[in-house]
Amino acid sequence: MPVLKAVDVEATLRKGDSARLADPVAPRFEVGARVVVRNLNPPGHTRAPRYIRLKRGVIERDHGVFIFPDTNAADQGAKPQHVYSVRFDAREVWGDDAPSNAAIYVDLWDDYLDPA
Amino acid sequence: MSDHDHPHPEHSDPGHSDSGHDIPSELALRVKALESLLVEKGLVDPAALDALIDMYEHKVGPRNGARVVARAWCDPAYRQRLLADGSAAIAELGFTGRQGADMVVVENTDTVHNMVVCTLCSCYPWPVLGLPPVWYKSAPYRARAVRDPRGVLREFGVELPEDVEIRVWDSTAEVRYLVLPQRPPGTEGMSEDELADLVTRDSMIGVGLPRAPGAKSTSAGTGP
Fold it and tell me: Which residues of B are tagged catalytic?
């Protein structure tokens, strides 16, 4: 990797580092679809937070196609796929003592989700 | 950090005892050792390090985000673009870069309050807010923001009516979130610059509200 020079710092930082990909991958879910998070417990890197595993939510927004970090971190390729904002009611995640008017939105890749 | 005079969780934070800001000297030493090794081997240019630090100390910080918010308060068409495509609308004002390439802006209303966390690490929209404050990276904030957002807001001095829905955005993937706070009442006729001065860093993370007009402007939550 080339050494970053002081003169290039600003341009490099302003350029950004998007993990978005142009690959024409079809989404597995439509906005409004009900999903459940897979019970994933990989030994390596994942971005599926433990607290929403096996929880049910609704696809709120499709962010587009991104590098899949679980395989990318393991040098197994980018595995391009859609990332969605998934809405989980607080009570679905934490139980009945959570407020009824609170929700958590988590950004999740296709490979983390099943239809519910 | 310039937010040392911040009146709340940095000091009352339950995690203060084990993960607050007292960086273990062992860690500082390890960083120094790594730095000299990387410099000696020619892998890091010390001048580039200085340029990096200078950029986030002086050029990139929450004043950028405040410009975005004030513009949205003044210009309905800009607000529409901002909510429809945060990255593009923020780039219109020249704020682009690392940890901000894919931005979503979420709007507070009379019935919805948004707040942002990264439960897995410390993801934060650098081009508009600068580098994250210590408490944002602390395990207690990360754990409690999703479990008890109202309790966390209360500790930040924010009391919302019970019927306001709280939405917590856990930015563990590639999208970074900016909260568009509500324009404070009594600000009709204020200029965009004056409005930007009311916008605090915390109000754009969703753990604070903008200052009321006439309230004393302090450095709390506004320093880069």
Answer: 118, 121-123
